[in-house]
Amino acid sequence: MNLNATLFFQMIVFFILAWFTMKFVWPPLIKAIDDRRQKIAEGLAAADKGKSDLAQAQARISQIEQSAKADNQSRLVEAEKQATSIVSAAREEAEAERARILAQAKQDAELEIERLRGSLRDEVAALAVKGAEQILRREVDAKTHAELLNQLKAQL
């Protein structure tokens, strides 16, 4: 056994194995590694995009919340204004009703006063007639002296 021949054959086998590995084994391994590297890069890019989308969504959500709060605030202010106008309208209507009731009561009181004055005049006239009757000791004819009684009522 020649050491040089063994070494030479081992070198040839090594180079054949290296060539076979580089020709048939290495390319699929490199391709698998490159595919895996590309998938990892795409995953990282998707994660970055997801983070940016999440930040945009959160910004949009906060903007929508602020818009909703402002809208609610404006609706609340509008409701308060409407409530105030309804209360003031009801107050004005109540004041008008109160004034109408007071005017009606005054008118009714004046009519009652006039009616009472008329009945008082009639009673005073009747008392005057009775008094005159007692003074004269005779009955006074109401038909003949109706004009006198009307004048007496008018003076009272």
From TrEMBL:
Residues 47-126 form a coiled coil. One of its GO terms (cellular component) is proton-transporting ATP synthase complex. Keywords: ATP synthesis, Cell membrane, CF(0), Coiled coil, Hydrogen ion transport, Hydrolase, Ion transport, Membrane, Transmembrane, Transmembrane helix, Transport. It is found in: Cell membrane; Endomembrane system. It is a single-pass membrane protein. InterPro entries: ATP_synth_B-like_membr_sf, ATP_synth_b/b'su_bac/chlpt, ATP_synth_F0_bsu_bac, ATP_synthase_B_chain. It comes from the Bacteria. Gene3D superfamilies: 6.10.250.1580. One of its GO terms (molecular function) is hydrolase activity. Belongs to the ATPase B chain family. F-type ATPases have 2 components, F(1) - the catalytic core - and F(0) - the membrane proton channel. F(1) has five subunits: alpha(3), beta(3), gamma(1), delta(1), epsilon(1). F(0) has four main subunits: a(1), b(2) and c(10-14). The alpha and beta chains form an alternating ring which encloses part of the gamma chain. F(1) is attached to F(0) by a central stalk formed by the gamma and epsilon chains, while a peripheral stalk is formed by the delta and b chains. F-type ATPases have 2 components, F(1) - the catalytic core - and F(0) - the membrane proton channel. F(1) has five subunits: alpha(3), beta(3), gamma(1), delta(1), epsilon(1). F(0) has three main subunits: a(1), b(2) and c(10-14). The alpha and beta chains form an alternating ring which encloses part of the gamma chain. F(1) is attached to F(0) by a central stalk formed by the gamma and epsilon chains, while a peripheral stalk is formed by the delta and b chains. F(1)F(0) ATP synthase produces ATP from ADP in the presence of a proton or sodium gradient. F-type ATPases consist of two structural domains, F(1) containing the extramembraneous catalytic core and F(0) containing the membrane proton channel, linked together by a central stalk and a peripheral stalk. During catalysis, ATP synthesis in the catalytic domain of F(1) is coupled via a rotary mechanism of the central stalk subunits to proton translocation. Component of the F(0) channel, it forms part of the peripheral stalk, linking F(1) to F(0). The b'-subunit is a diverged and duplicated form of b found in plants and photosynthetic bacteria. This is ATP synthase subunit b. It comes from Pelistega indica. The lineage of its organism: Bacteria, Pseudomonadati, Pseudomonadota, Betaproteobacteria, Burkholderiales. The gene is atpF.
